[in-house]
Write a structure and sequence with these properties.
Blueprint: H1 4-17, H2 21-32, H3 36-41, E1 43-44, H4 48-62, E2 68-76, E3 81-88, E4 91-98, E5 103-109, E6 117-126, E7 133-136
Antiparallel strand pairs: 1-2, 2-3, 3-4, 4-5, 5-6, 6-7
Length: 144
């Protein structure tokens, strides 16, 4: 069985190369979502810039202004990995971000049933001194 580090490395590779973002999110849920070792690795965290980016992405994906509420954010320092969930305009949103490759993904459940999601891949760079952030969607098919 693969270790948490191996699973995160596979997720990282998929995030950067997979065209179908639903497959990337399914890999995350299937391989890490119920992994107790993975859950123990993450520590509660705060990252204002990541919250701002998640809000901006959710607004673009939902095509309206929305508030981010109930954010739960976790950091796995050994892997430079953030993951979490929140409510975005009343919809459930899930996200993850790899610090070392400055890339992440958001999935918003837009339908009445779980699994009816829209996805976005993004790049984000956080400035060390002023804590500013810049982000872009890196590919044509980054929102699905």
């Amino acid at each position: 069985m693969a270790t948490v580090i191996e699973k995160l490395k596979s997720l990282e590779i998929m995030l950067g190369s997979e065209g179908e973002l639903g497959s990337v999110f399914a890999f995350f849920l299937d391989n890490l979502g119920n992994d107790t070792d993975f859950m123990r690795c993450g520590k509660p965290a705060k990252n204002t810039n990541l919250k701002i980016i998640i809000q901006k992405l959710c607004e673009g994906m939902l095509e309206r202004d929305c508030q981010i509420t109930g954010m739960k954010l976790f950091h796995v320092p050994k892997s430079q990995f953030y993951h979490g969930l929140c409510q975005a305009g009343g919809k459930s949103a899930f996200f993850f971000y790899f610090e070392h490759i400055e890339m992440g993904m958001v999935a918003i459940n837009v339908g009445p049933a779980f699994g009816q999601c829209t996805y976005a891949r993004f790049n984000a760079t956080f400035g060390p001194a002023d804590r500013s952030a810049n982000f872009v969607a890196p590919r044509k098919k980054s929102i699905q």
